[in-house]
Amino acid sequence: MDPVTAIAAAGVALVAKGALESVGQEAGRSGWGSAGRLVDRIRARFRGDAEAEGAMDRVAQSPDDETAHQDLERLLAAHMLRDRDFETEMRRLIDEAVAAQGGRGGAQVNAALIKNAQVFNEKVEVQGDWNVS
Fold first, then answer.
1. Average pLDDT over residues 3-28
2. What is the rounded distance in angstroms from the CA atom of residue 74 to the CA atom of residue 85?
3. Can you spell out the DSSP letters for 112-124?
4. How far is CA 1 from the centre of its chain?
5. Could you tell me the pTM of the whole model?
6. Which of 128, 101, 124, 104 is nearest to 4 (CA)?
7. How far apart are CA 36 and CA 72, in angstroms?
8. S-S: 107 plus which of 9, 60, 82, 95, CB 3.0-4.6 Å?
């Protein structure tokens, strides 16, 4: 899985988790502050993009809807690919949210977060400098 897709999958999982926690009145937990900032930042980025706003709303309203997750993941990844500063900000916010929710050693993306991610299995050639963080 490429890094942008992994970030998008983790972001969508945190959005859905936040929606579930707010319904369960757990939003006051310490981890929600960071996840709340992530959700707010995504909403701000999507403002004016009806398709992206709709995808965000569908995940918030139906956090267990896998189709909604996939749509939001695709749109979030597209926004990150168009704006590398936004991608960097998403990485930072996801790291903070995961750490605040008890993650040790920074963000961890596990199978539960990316269970429905699409995997790109074609040959990839990279040229020049390339850093993965």
1. 70
2. 18
3. TTSTT-----S--
4. 14
5. 0.65
6. 124
7. 17
8. 95
